[in-house]
Amino acid sequence: MPDGTVSQDWASKLSVVSESFESGRGLPPTCYTDPAFHAAEIDRIFRREWLCLGREDEMPAPGDYLSLDLLGDPLVMLRDGDGALRVLSRVCRHRSMPVIEGRGNTKTLVCPYHHWAYGLDGRLVGAPEMGKTPGFDAKTICLPEIRHEIWEGFVFINFDSDTAPLGPQLRGVSRLLANYRLSELRTVRSLPFDIECRWNWKLMCDNFIEPYHHVGVHLKSLEPSLPARLSEIVESDGPWTMVHMRYRKGRSPEEAPDPDAPALPPFPGADALQRRTFTLLHIFPNLLVSFFTDHMQFYRLFPEGPDRVHMEKLFCYPPEAMALPQFEDTVEHNERSFIEFRDEDIDAVLVLQQAYRSRHAQPGVFSHLERPIWDFARWIADRMERV
Ligand code: FES
Ligand SMILES: [Fe+2]
Hints:
Layout: H1 5-14, H2 35-46, E1 51-55, E2 64-70, E3 73-79, E4 85-89, E5 103-105, E6 109-110, E7 117-118, E8 124-126, E9 147-151, E10 154-158, H3 171-176, E11 186-192, H4 201-209, E12 231-233, E13 240-246, E14 277-283, E15 287-291, E16 296-305, E17 308-317, H5 319-322, H6 327-355, H7 371-385
Antiparallel strand pairs: 1-10, 2-3, 2-5, 3-4, 6-7, 7-8, 9-10, 11-17, 12-13, 13-14, 14-15, 15-16, 16-17
The protein binds FE2/S2 (inorganic) cluster (FES) and fe (ii) ion.
């Protein structure tokens, strides 16, 4: 991507975000629709920042693997024979066929095209009919490994070897969420979206993190128990935002259990306030996590174009809860109620994606409840302005 000129153009458009929340606006609507902005965003954000791929516990045993496509790049997260997690390119070093698909357990990655076989460390261990090729040396051939870091059980990758480590940037989040013992949680359900997600990835992030829309989109579903005005925006010291939504008095799951679903106990380590709080966390750019009083949900979210995003919802529970007799029923119930709220949000973001194309669309002034959107816009603008 040629820099310089693109950078100049975006710098003037992004100046509306401003240096302070008080005078700032959101990203211009064109940032959610323009293919040129999207291309620059891939170059300046997705090729340089830490991107969440999922949870380490999705591959618990040696040989477990999960194939993913990130920005058109076929990758595989796997656990090697020594139990170490690795993220490899799954593009064959022979003629580029993806060497594995889907998820499962395997001892080797065997390319379906000509059966070149790779070990779980990515090294080529077999290649039929290659003995007569001058200079062919299997020992020198390896699937490229992508730099990764594990934070609280989440797997992050980075395509840039110069980017600073992620962990130190998230110390504040670790401290705030220590009671949930995140690294011990187990991912028990993954729900790919069964609809076409034809909206910009940032629109999903904006809609996810701000509690303000409870007074509109979720007026009947969420606002009665989690009113927008009881939300508390956490002061952030890194590439993240967090919102605590307090249950109305007497309306927390503990105080008013849902008659349709046997409740699980709250997170074993949760304090009194956390037992009546629903917390939202956005780690920039692509990790969106929600903490209910008894379990965690997060989105696997990868952009697929200016107006298309891959979305999958994952459900994680404390190991203690999994032994309880009502566990399976509760998991089912939580999935159903997620779909109900999701559909309210989706109706909104689909319409917004269209409206952002209007000549009259412009970033309006913010409510104090939308501070996290501005924090994210500021973070995006900083990265888009750099060369
Ligand atoms: S492309 Fe993989 S073995 Fe030929
Ligand atoms: Fe919502």
